[in-house]
């Protein structure tokens, strides 16, 4: 479903309705920003997430004692010489 772009005059009207009056010089920039956000949201709505579960369903598993501290504070996968453990 596509919707027409928001015009600068419409952006001013909606902003005023929300209690945020805009200077005349900002109408076009606000309309362009709103149209961009609308485009991004439309692209996200079109994503096929398949059977991806919502993020709220994710349960983190606490690290075990064996994996909690690896001595790899640099994040490189190897313990580098000259770096003290934090």
TrEMBL record:
Name of the protein described by the UniProt record: Amidase
